[in-house]
Specification:
The protein has one domain (10-151). It is 23% helix and 12% strand. It contains 4 helices and 5 strands; from the N terminus they run αββαβαββα. Strands 3-5-4 form a 3-stranded antiparallel beta sheet. A two-stranded antiparallel sheet has the order 1-2. Strand 4 (125-128) and strand 5 form a beta hairpin. The longest helix is centred in the first third of the chain and has 14 residues, at 48-61. The protein is elongated, with a radius of gyration of 19 Å.
């Protein structure tokens, strides 16, 4: 399965975002890992602007010819538009939010006071409820979620000091 924005395979993206011998343990593309405290694995988020800049640099270095083989006659789909929304709705059960691709259960652990976040939510959310009703609609602050993701950003080749090697990262979920 290929990435819907750029048509890249998972293994090629891993080479760009994970520290390895192939990239001198300094990945050229920024990414973030969001994981529960004490967990070995988590959700890896790739910074699209960093990936786009890297791909453009590679295209310019190859003289404008595509250095990336997409493996099919059809070009990759155009990028998904960025949202200017201030809030996103908590997705339905067994679905993911359309903006970040995070699951409902993972978002709940970020926004609702619980044992996983020491009863201190990392991301702001609000419940819209009619007067007298028990339930409502939970809205998640996009800015707060972006800040949380950026706080977990890992160093790339451009940000890492020369000669340093970053620790190997977890697998992508």
């Amino acid at each position: 399965m290929r990435d819907p924005q750029f048509g890249l395979t998972r293994s090629y993206l891993n080479l760009l975002i994970l520290p390895s011998k192939a990239n001198d343990f300094r990945p050229p593309v920024l990414s973030s890992v969001i994981r529960r405290p004490g967990a070995k694995t988590g959700v890896r988020m790739i910074k699209v602007a960093s990936l786009r800049a890297y791909l453009i640099d590679q295209l310019q270095a190859s003289g404008g010819q595509s250095a990336i083989q997409f493996g099919s006659e059809t070009p990759p789909q155009p990028p998904i538009p960025t949202s200017n929304a201030e809030f996103i709705r908590l997705p339905k059960p067994k679905e993911r939010d359309p903006l970040f691709g995070l699951s409902r259960s993972f978002l709940n652990q970020l926004i609702i006071p619980c044992m996983h976040n020491a009863y201190r939510p990392h991301v702001r959310s609000h419940v819209l409820r009619r007067r007298g009703y028990r339930t409502g609609i939970r809205l998640i602050s996009v800015d707060s979620l972006r800040q949380y993701i950026q706080a977990h950003e890992e160093k790339s080749r451009d940000n890492a000091p020369p000669g340093t090697k970053s620790a190997p990262s977890s697998t992508i979920n």
